[in-house]
Specification:
alpha/beta; 165 residues; single chain; 5 strands
């Protein structure tokens, strides 16, 4: 099920299990995983893209191995917030993936996630070659952490509303 908002995603998630974040590039897919409490995102591996069926099989294998409860895809919006061809491609990927898994799928605005990841890797004095190998998974970590922070905010506000009643 593709969720329109983070609130819908939060409602669709099972109470336990981590979340996977995906940064879909044209040549690679960066993976990141949260802990079971959905507080911290960690960069995972970077997959070389081939055909959708093979890409999806690799992702679903990772999901099954880690007991993932939901999927977050980075949505590459233009700087003005509009959607271009890459965003349309991401939405098509999500629709195809939705046919293969019952897990909730959500989008997270990924504008500047790769730039942020690049800055962190440069600050860590990582070589250009090594940066190229891990940039997509680190960007996926930024995407996923954004959604995890939003989910934590939604939980806090829900608890506050419950306390006010």
């Amino acid at each position: 099920m593709i969720c329109a908002t983070p609130q819908d995603f939060a409602a669709a998630l099972s109470p336990s299990g981590g979340v996977i974040g995906l940064d879909l590039g044209t040549k690679t897919i960066g993976l990141a995983f949260s802990d079971g409490l959905r507080g911290v995102a960690s960069a995972g591996e970077t997959l070389r893209r081939t055909k959708f069926t093979e890409d999806a099989a690799q992702i679903l294998t990772q999901i099954a191995a880690r007991g993932v409860a939901g999927i977050v895809l980075g949505l590459p919006l233009n700087m003005d917030g509009s959607e271009g061809p890459r965003a349309q491609s991401t939405r098509a990927f999500a629709r195809n993936l939705e046919r293969l898994t019952p897990l909730p799928i959500a989008y997270w605005d990924e504008r500047l996630s790769t730039v942020a990841a690049e800055r962190v890797l440069i600050a860590a004095d990582m070589s250009r070659k090594r940066r190229a190998e891990v940039i997509d998974s680190v960007a996926a970590g930024y995407i996923l952490q954004g959604m995890l922070d939003r989910l934590a905010y939604l939980r806090r506000t829900e608890c506050q509303r419950g306390a006010d009643d």
